[in-house]
Amino acid sequence: MGWGNAVVGHRNPIAPPVRLVAEPDGTVWAEFTLGAAYEGPNHLTHGGVSALILDQALGAAAEVAGAPGMTGTLTLRYLRGTPLGRLRVQAKATRTEGVKTFVSGTIGDEDGVCVQAEGIFILPAQLRERYAEHAALIGYDPHSYPET
Of 1, 53, 63, 114, which alpha carbon lies 20 to 30 A from 9's? Predict the structure, then answer.
């Protein structure tokens, strides 16, 4: 567990209040409330904060799919301003090709989607063996995400 993680770090005082949940179908989601600390334009969430949260959720979805990795690409489409307040993020892996995992996700509010994201997550060669050994050693099941 990355206790200092910029999005889900329990010990990071500036991390947004995002607690990701994994569903049996591989969907990762969280409902959370963003306040003034995450403001960009007047009364709206900063676009970089949306990107940060989506990057974390998409990466978690890749992990839940059994194909973890680091962000290779992250493409965002801002459909409308993301208001401060109650939001939902969700993501799911769509396919895996070798060491690449393709994931899509959204952030929205009660009025619908505000931001769409697509990402490719890649497990670098130098980490593949170490990750497999560590997962086997601790009996890690990616479907049990998040680690506690």
Answer: 114
**Residue 33, amino acid:** T
53, with CB counted inside 10 A (0-12, 13-18, 19+), is buried
For tokens 């990071």, what's the residue?
12
Residue type, 121: F
